[in-house]
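Regression test attached.
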Amino acid sequence: MEYTISKLAKLAGVSSRTLRYYDEIDLLKPSRINSSGYRIYGQKEVDRLQQILFFRELEVDLETIIQIMNEPNFDQSNALIHHYNQLVQKRARLDKLIETIDKTIAHQKGEITLNNHEKFEAFKDNLVTENEQKYGEEIRKKYGDKTVDESNAKFRGMSKEDYEAMEKLGNEILELLPKAFKTGDPSSELAQQLAAKHKEWLTYSWPSYSKEAHRGLAEMYVADERFTAYYDKGIEGGTEFLKDAIFVYVDKQN
Amino acid sequence: MEYTISKLAKLAGVSSRTLRYYDEIDLLKPSRINSSGYRIYGQKEVDRLQQILFFRELEVDLETIIQIMNEPNFDQSNALIHHYNQLVQKRARLDKLIETIDKTIAHQKGEITLNNHEKFEAFKDNLVTENEQKYGEEIRKKYGDKTVDESNAKFRGMSKEDYEAMEKLGNEILELLPKAFKTGDPSSELAQQLAAKHKEWLTYSWPSYSKEAHRGLAEMYVADERFTAYYDKGIEGGTEFLKDAIFVYVDKQN
DNA sequence: CATAAAGGTTGACGTAACGTGAATGTCAAC
DNA sequence: GTTGACATTCACGTTACGTCAACCTTTATG
């Protein structure tokens, strides 16, 4: 089956301009050009376009898609995990925004009378994560962790005390992990303490606790190398163990 | 308290370029310019910037924000509801994407072996809603409902039969609503039938059912005039009643 | 068969919300 | 007095196309 440009465009739900553009940037070339200069696409191109649109929907920019598609050695799973994390964060942010508007609409029907505190709350969290993502590493290198933490605490609207408590919890988790690991049992006393601490830690940074979210995060830990590197630091297999402990813990919660 | 451009920028977490740009497009003017041409902002401007950022976070474009901020008669609540709906849809889409990636990561670890059907599934729904939003009204005017429905059905990957079944359900809900309303009791037999039908209807258009989502939608119905207009068509207060019935129904589910 | 409508082509400019220089002026501090 | 941080105004770059314009080719129709 062969397609002209607009046939393929209709099939895939994009504009023909889009296909010409993809041709231009060497993302998707037609299989051949006919005698009158028309672009003709075949099944292979249809499949490739599907892949492209798949990534585009994940909000991967075209430059990256080109790389993903052209280099077979490109680490696709890593790219996916990366975008997965972005999406999850984005959703969390959306949830918060929706909640905020909910309040505005439902409780103040039609009037925008949120106080400044509330107004800022919604996007401060967002700012802090964005800043961390973009500049976190750089800033940490330049000014050390303290500056970043303080500014993060400030942005989050947390007191420095809360923020430090959160950090302390994070460290306790790291300390407890190898000890719990030695029990070899994710449902052991120590392992469950670990999971409980982890939940407590979560409540500092997440707007609301849910079992699904907790499980999801645990899975992410295992899937994402950056986390496994972090939690396996003390003991190899620690991340996996933490995940198992969390799963047991979550399942136990009534 | 007065701020130079970079002080304000830091305070609000934006770049100074952004503030200059907002000045340029008359969105946020400094309170005064000092003798050497520096922009100086006061408390009023800080507040205004907060408002601006609030809307910007809702992904309202700056042109619209200018209108919202400059015309006190601009219907703010309507604008909010509009954006609320957009956000909710966006989140639903995100959920779907996350689910898809979940599958990819978890089940095929590292390998992208989704079949074409799955690959398209994730963004076909998105396309159809976007098309509906942008062109739905126009197309409906031009070609009548049938064309739109068929094309929607096609995009959704639904059979025409399924789509029509869904439409039939929608109509049944509209018919049942006044009858159930007359019982005056959201937990009455008829009202619960109504809610059950509504759930069934939902399963056609939503990727997965959840109590929260169902409740959320019911709340949206009441909050959004377009829905109240629709469900109050048969009987005044119908929307509210439908919401109550759904809440009872959802609570009853195990 | 002529002609119109539909669909194809290549430029090339427009968009939104800034980022990123360049060239230059100003202020605070050592 | 100089240095470095911070301010100013151009002005061009960015992304992923949308939208003409000017022109050519294929298909449908009276």
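Expected vs. actual: identical. The radius of gyration of chain A is 24 Å.
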